[in-house]
Amino acid sequence: MQKKTDTAIIRIENPQVEIEGLNLYYGSSQALNNLSFGIPAHQVTALIGPSGCGKSTLLRCINRMNDLVDGLRLEGLIKINGENINDPSLDVIELRRKVGMVFQKWNPFPKSIYENIVYGLRIAGIQDKTVLDEAAEKCLKRAALWDEVKDRLHQSAMGLSGGQMQRLCIARAIAVSPEIILMDEPCSALDPRSTSRIEDLIRELRGEYTIIIVTHNMQQAARISDYTAYMYLGELIEYGLTQTLFTMPEKKETEDYITGRFG
Amino acid sequence: MTKKFWRQGEPFVWATGLALSLILFLTMLLFYVVMANGLAVFWPKKVALATLSDGEHILGEIVQEETIPGTEKKRIQFKIGNRDLYGLDFKWVDTSSIVSLSFPENVQVLERQEFGNFYGYLSELEVKGISPPAAGSNSLTQTIAALDSRKKEVDLLGKKIANLNRRVELIDHHLSKARYSKEENTPALAAMQGEKQGLKTEFEALVSILGEKAAALATNQAIFTDANGRTKAIALPNIVRSYQPNSMSFLAKCTYYLERLRELLFDEPRESNTEGGLFPAIFGTVMLIFLMSILSFPLGVLAGIYLREYAKDGWLVKMVRIAVNNLAGIPSIVYGIFGLGFFVYGIGGGIDQLFFPERLPAPTFGTGGILWTSLTLGLLTVPVVIVATEEALGSIPPGIREGSQALAATKLQTLTRILLPMASPGILTGFILAMARAAGEVAPLMITGVVKLAPALPLDGVFPYLHLDRKFMHLGFHIYDIGFQSPNVEAAKPMVYVTTLLLILIVLAMTSTAIHLRNKMRQRHSVVDV
Predict the structure, then answer these.
(1) Which residues on chain A are in Cβ contact (under 8 Å) with B409?
(2) pLDDT at residue B188 in the model
(3) Which of B81, B175, B225, B403 has a CA between 20 and 30 Å from the CA of residue B518?
(4) Inter-chain CB proximity A65 and B405 less than 8 Å
């Protein structure tokens, strides 16, 4: 499926997300510098790198969450399934239905657990109660939250613990059946136990969804991802199979970062 | 040691507590004054008979007692009533000149349709048409009750005549419209003229019947004597209520109190507003706040949403924000003047030119009315709603917005399904403040549509039921009017307190409803730990 090229960046055959010559500027400062790589379907891809290296910015380009930012300028192409997502004729709502997102800080709506799960479906115009009920149960089970909340589906989601809220947000994201799920440091505000539950969940979702996860936690990237990309100052330094990247990094910078000598 | 004392902030805690206590104290004092004076107004007071050293008798309620400035002597103020006999309602008497003071059992107090209260003794009843009641302490009350059905008949006739008048007016309106559009000699016009003639004959017949009946009713009279033996004949239909306060039981006093309260809330005013009920003013106040809310709430919320959610943050938006905040500092009378110039003369005058040219120069909408007043008040309160909406939307964590949009919600869906419900408690808080402010305003009302005495309510059973062009009465203006503009300020004082109390209670009731609603919203949409 993949062939090693002469550089430290692996080439993916038939990538689901394809980034070509991506440059991103905030006003006059450049945040992403000529990124080109592909992200494979149904695998977990981790983006690592020191703070401010542009991982989150890149992630937010993929579902166009950056649209709202003032003074942001983009060059280059991002293709999902071969389609340019920045094409003016493309509906951003359709894109976001395809590309779900889980945030660093859990953000359930101040509604009931049930309403949180079915929010995306209601937005899409689905009103049939049996469909919504089934989806809610399925997604909560998928997110390993069903047993904990099945008796209080119609109580406020604000009463859940942090880890439960984050799993609720993942369940909410998969309820709209996306192809890709973006995760922006989903465990950074969680305790180790909740973190391991989320990691289990990611491992389970792998294969069904394409998951792109930004993380600061090297061990986490090593544990859950199939591919890892190391970014530094807006540039892609190294990209490859997680196993290879963590054991035999090709570049000195990558090795310094993952061994903790830098970053 | 002292340094540590200051640093620990003990004095600061005291200062904050003291500030709050001071504010509470002043508010409580205000409430106490209003309550103490307002609640006691309807309680029947004893009537004292004072015999003076020169042989004169004074009969009246003791209002207050004070030391004459600069001397040791005291004086008492009596409410002596009988304005038609004495010309004034109140009298100061030096205590030194009072020989004796008693509370005779058989003193009769009358509340009359005109000339205020009467204090005296019943000496004779002259009754026709009904069997004279057995003599006794309550023969007067019985007779008045016996005449009640006839009195109601007369009232009903009056209402019928007013109704006829309105129909004639309507026909006149159609006729002038036809005349304006140069229609002549059409059968419809002739029919209208005929109908008008018919109504006029009916009207005249009714008026003469009314005159006869009222005159017949007025021949039933009672002769009273005052403290000094002067006699006065008073027609029974003129007596609103009669009672003997010095011999009333506690229960009777309670009944009297409740009856006065009912009159206050549900009856029309009498005696240039200083007596009788406040129903039209209560109705006007509530309706004004209601209309104002309908007009200003959606406008303010929409403007606030635009400023926060859609407008690009730049110098223009900043200027608008500063301007909106400063709008709250403009004296309300300026809003009134603007309302008069823009709404009443500008828009109202325009409407008259376009839709009611046949009635000109008599204005229809081009004069003060409840619609223009509500618009003016709406303009006055809209900045508060805008600021509250903006603040409430701005305080929602950005993660919530992103979460909704990441789930493929459009901006509108995010706004209506997530943001507005979450912002609603904050918006309602601003709205409650706006409502309370509008309820207490008087100055802008005076020039845009409030009147001392409105002939009809802005909402009634006559098509089109809601008459937004009509002038109306208002409790706030009522306070100003009877307290400072009435010819008999002293006699109106109790009513000022009662009206104030009533206005406070109405505002309290309306804001409590809104607060209750807000708390419900807050429970449902509260954000904890986000």
Answers:
(1) 93, 119-120, 123
(2) 77
(3) B403
(4) yes
The Cα-based distances of B528 to A103, A162, B166, B471, B524 in angstroms read 17, 11, 60, 49, 12
Residue A42 has which token pair? 């149904």
State how far residue A190 is from chain B, nearest Cα, in angstroms: 13
- Take residue B430 and report the two structure tokens written for it: 């601003």
Pick from A63, A109, A158: CB nearest B403: A109
Q: Which of B196-200, B361-365, B400-404 has the lowest mean pLDDT?
A: B361-365
- CA–CA separation, B161 and A241 (whole Å): 98
**What are the backbone dihedrals phi and psi of residue A2, each rounded to the nearest 5 degrees, phi first?**
-125, 150
Q: Which residues of B touch A108 (CB under 8 A)?
A: 403, 530
Are the CB atoms for B114 and B488 separated by under 8 Å?
no
Q: Which fold has domain B279-525?
A: MetI-like fold (1.10.3720)
Judge residue B19's burial from the number of C-beta atoms within 10 Å of its C-beta, 0-12 exposed, 13-18 middle, 19 or more buried. exposed
CATH 3.40.50.12160 fits A2-110+182-258, yes or no: no
Q: How wide is the angle at C-alpha B520 spanned by C-alphas B517 and B522, nearest 5°?
A: 110
B423 touches chain A (CB under 8 A): no
Average pLDDT over chain A, rounded to whole? Answer: 88
Q: What's the token pair of residue B490?
A: 């002293």
What residues of chain B lie within 8 A of the CB of A124, using their CB? 408
Among the four given CATH numbers 1.10.3470, 3.90.1150, 2.30.30, 2.40.10, the one describing domain B47-106: 2.30.30
pLDDT in tens, A40-98: 999 999 999 888 888 899 999 998 988 878 788 888 889 998 888 888 888 888 899 99
- What DSSP string runs through A123-164? HTT---HHHHHHHHHHHHHHTT-HHHHGGGTTSBGGGS-HHH
User: Are B368 and B450 contacting, i.e. CB atoms less than 8 angstroms apart?
Assistant: yes
CA separation for the pair A195, A191 (Å, rounded): 6
Q: Tell me if A96 and B527 make a contact (CB, 8 A cut-off).
A: no
8 A C-beta contact, residue B210 and residue B153? no
What are the tens digits of pLDDT across the range B447-478? 998 888 887 788 877 777 788 888 889 999 99
The distance of Cα B166 from the centroid of its chain, to the nearest Å, equals: 25
Which token pair is A26?
Answer: 């905030």
Instruction: Evaluate the CA torsion angle B473, B475, B477, B483 in order and state its sign.
Output: positive
* Residues facing A227 on adjacent strands: A45, A241
Do residue A158 and residue B526 have CB atoms under 8 angstroms apart? yes
What is the interface pTM, i.e. ipTM, of the complex? Answer: 0.87
Q: What is the pLDDT of residue B133?
A: 62
- In angstroms, rounded to a whole number, what is the distance separating the alpha carbons of residues B261 and A128? 56
Domain boundaries, chain B: 47-106, 279-525
A112: helix, coil or strand? strand
Q: Rounded to a whole number, what is the distance in Å from the CA of B398 to chain A's nearest CA?
A: 9
Nearest-Cα distance to chain A for B428, in Å, is 18
Contact (Cβ atoms closer than 8 angstroms) between residue A214 and residue A184: yes
Task: Give the torsion through C-alpha atoms of A189, A191, A193, A197, to 10 deg.
Answer: 0
- Burial, B502: exposed, middle or buried (Cβ in 10 Å; 0-12, 13-18, 19+)? buried
Query: Token digits for B304?
Result: 């606030």
Whether the CA torsion A75, A81, A82, A83 is positive or negative: it is: negative
How far is residue B384's CA from residue B324's CA, in Å, rounded to a whole number? 8
| pLDDT in the model for residue A189 | 84
Give the pLDDT band (50/70/90) at residue A2.
Answer: very low
